[in-house]
Design goal:
Blueprint: H1 8-15, E1 21-25, H2 31-44, E2 53-57, H3 60-74, E3 81-83, H4 84-95, E4 108-110, H5 112-125, H6 133-146, H7 151-156, H8 166-178, E5 181-183, H9 184-197, H10 199-208, E6 211-214, H11 222-232, E7 238-242, H12 258-265, E8 269-273, H13 281-291, E9 314-322, H14 323-337, E10 346-350, H15 356-366, E11 370-372, H16 382-395, H17 400-406, H18 416-425, H19 430-436, H20 441-457, H21 465-476, H22 478-486, H23 490-510, H24 514-523, E12 536-540, E13 549-554, H25 571-585, E14 588-602, E15 605-608, H26 613-618
Parallel strand pairs: 1-7, 1-8, 2-3, 2-6, 4-5, 6-7, 9-14, 10-12, 10-13, 11-12, 13-14
Antiparallel strand pairs: 14-15
Bound molecules: adenosine-5'-triphosphate and magnesium ion.
Magnesium ion binds next to helix 2.
Length: 622
């Protein structure tokens, strides 16, 4: 039953046992399908218990979809379908003490904004420019992804000026540890550190699983490879799928050459699937033409996808005078298509997020329901972050990023000088630091109220976050503060607070602890924000990998946008841009609409645009 409907190549991959296996195959050929069927096959035909299979993917959305497909086949929800990050969180929650540092199991996860705040403070302490914080973050992040046991040595050995961030990195790690906090990269870095350092812990985790599987392998980086290697040990029960031609994250450290490394280092058997099930022939012809100029570093064979899909669907390209008329054209197409298609069957994939603004205004006029997947999400809004930081701080009064975010919102007259004194008094508890710091009478009064408020809720935040939130809004006079702070905009912000309270109320009713909720929403990536509602999705090409829609629009095919101006600076990024075009076109099942504009507004001025080179190349298919 499980093997039914698979083609012979797919079936062979599902049934293969006996050595590590790598399935390399183009977009839409059923890699993810093979992976989920293999899980079902191992459980049904080989009697492996579902909780002894670990399957890793990149996004929570992909992990959830995978879990759903398996539930359909097995009627059991597998326990270990994770993202790299969420798997590492589990390792750390269990074994963080192996690191021999002061982290406890209740550590919090810092998002990018939290990390930047910590780095800005360090820059101030070092008398450097706070605007360097972003560069420092990138360098620290890359150092952790490259996985060297000492980040300090790694950064110190970089060419000047990058090397000057070594001390900053050291200080940053100390600050995070004092806050009992880890950033995203730390999650993998420290989990790998634990598995590498302790043979007993490594064996324990290795023995927990009979089978290890990885999807989208082409986008793994060095440290993720190390993690897989440590977990696999010498096991032959290792399976990965990937497509070199879909690697679109080298700018973030992913290494498509990990595919070849996997085959070599694990002695893996390699299988190929060449048939595409997703898209129509014409769509594939376009994808194949643009990708044919990309060579894979270790194989001479050019990629060529084929399909038996009969139905020809629709492909159309149109040039427009400007961005607005382009958006109107898209809106009218969507309106027509919506007679036979759900809105959620359609997606617009943009190379850059600024492109979504014009689309948005036109869609509003046309009353087309849409969801912008990237951009400032709900949990990134100031008021949501303020209040969640309060809850986070109540749960963990070591959390520096949360403390610094809330100590002056609403204002308590605690200025830079006072804050820097408080920081100096910090040992392992910000409330204690606040008590130990000399403040003016007025500040003292406000600080005491703050301490009392926070302590008053410390026992209830985990189980009753909704009640705590409502109490806090009252205690803090939060609505009056928002009104004063944001004036006209305050209504919208109050709506957001109300939405947050809805979320927490549901959580409380479900009986899910607050810390678990925070973890989920910190680990959510851009792609995970895609809801199930019936709306047209607008998202970046990067966020679209692994997904598919019957109807896809690719607007703004212009030089400087797609390919992006920055990508034209190096041969390798020109190739990555082509891979991105290949990913974008192969998201479409039946209809693909391409467009460009002759002019666009940039910085308030009209710029004239040149059509993308890709349009020239695929001309004969349009
Ligand atoms: N043997 C098959 N018969 C019918 N449909 C199939 C078959 N194999 C795959 N499909 C369908 O083709 C589509 C693409 O499959 P899947 O998402 O697994 O491909 P993929 O190789 O993982 O793609 P991507 O490279 O984009 O991640 C899905 O809709 C899937 O159900
Ligand atoms: Mg896939």
């Amino acid at each position: 039953m499980i093997l039914e409907g698979l083609n012979p190549q797919q079936k062979a991959a599902v049934e293969y046992l006996g050595s590590p296996l790598f399935v390399s195959a183009g977009a839409g050929s059923g890699k993810t399908k093979v992976l989920t069927h293999k899980i079902a096959y191992l459980v049904k035909a080989k009697g492996i218990r579902p909780n002894r299979i670990l399957a890793i993917t990149f996004t929570k959305k992909a992990a959830n979809e995978m879990a759903e497909r398996i539930v359909k086949m097995l009627s059991i929800k597998p326990m270990w379908i994770s993202t790299f990050h969420s798997f590492c969180v589990k390792v750390l929650r269990e074994d963080v003490q192996i690191l021999g540092r002061s982290f406890s199991r209740e550590f919090v996860i810092y998002d990018t904004g939290d990390s930047l705040k910590v780095l800005k403070n360090i820059m101030k302490r070092f008398n450097r420019e706070t605007k360097e914080a972003g560069d420092a973050r990138d360098i620290i992040s890359k150092a952790k992804q490259a996985y060297r046991s000492s980040i300090f040595d790694h950064i110190a050995a970089l060419p000047y000026p990058a090397s000057t961030y070594a001390e900053v990195a050291e200080e940053y790690q100390k600050d995070l540890e004092r806050s009992n906090a880890m950033d995203y990269d730390d999650l993998i870095f420290f989990a790998v550190g634990i598995l590498a350092a302790s043979p007993e812990t490594r064996t324990k985790w290795q023995e927990r699983f009979d089978y290890l599987m990885i999807d989208e392998f082409q986008d793994t980086n060095d440290i993720q490879f190390s993690l897989i290697k440590l977990l696999a040990g010498g096991s032959k029960n290792l399976f990965a799928v990937g497509d070199f031609f879909q690697c679109i994250y080298t700018w973030r450290g992913s290494r498509p050459s990990n595919i070849e490394r996997f085959i070599r280092e694990f002695g893996a058997k390699e299988m190929k699937i060449e048939k595409n099930y997703r898209s129509t022939r014409r769509i594939l012809a376009i994808a194949n033409t643009v990708i044919s100029k990309v060579r894979c570093g270790w194989s001479n064979k050019a990629l060529e996808l084929y399909t038996d899909n009969k139905e020809e669907g629709d492909i159309e390209y149109k040039s427009h005078a400007d961005g607005i008329s382009e958006s109107v054209w898209i809106a009218e197409k969507i309106r027509r298509l919506s007679r036979n298609n759900a809105y959620s069957d359609m997606a617009i994939l943009v190379r850059m997020t600024f492109l979504s603004r014009v689309l948005e205004s036109v869609f509003m006029r046309y009353q087309i329901p849409y969801t912008i997947v990237s951009g400032v999400g709900f949990y990134d809004r100031a008021e949501t972050k303020d209040l969640l930081s309060y809850l986070r701080f109540i749960a963990n009064p070591k959390d520096a990023a949360a403390f610094e975010r809330i100590i002056n919102s609403p204002g308590r007259g605690i200025g830079k000088k006072a804050l820097s004194n408080i920081r100096q008094n910090f040992r392992n508890d910000w409330l204690q630091a606040l008590r130990d710091t000399r403040l003016t009478a007025k500040q003292r009064l406000a600080a005491d109220v703050f301490v009392k408020t926070v302590e008053g809720y410390s026992n209830s935040v985990e189980d009753e976050p909704y009640k705590v939130l409502m109490g806090l809004i009252d205690d803090l006079g939060y609505f009056a503060y928002i009104e004063k702070e944001y004036g006209e905009d305050s209504e919208d912000r109050m709506e957001n607070v109300s939405e947050l309270s809805n979320v927490l109320q549901a959580l409380e009713e479900e009986g899910k602890p607050f810390s678990e909720f925070m973890e989920d929403n910190l680990l959510a990536s851009e792609q995970d924000k895609i809801g199930k509602e019936d709306s047209v999705k607008i998202l970046t090409l990067h966020a679209s990998k692994g997904l598919e829609w019957p109807v896809v629009f690719l607007p703004a095919l212009e030089e400087g946008i797609f390919p992006s101006a920055k990508s034209l600076m190096s041969q390798s990024s020109i190739e990555e841009e082509r891979r991105l075009f290949y990913v974008g076109t192969t998201r479409a099942r039946e209809r693909l609409y391409l467009s460009s504009a002759e002019s666009r507004m940039k910085f308030g001025q009209t710029s004239f645009m040149v059509k993308s080179r890709y349009l020239q190349e695929i001309k004969h298919h349009l």
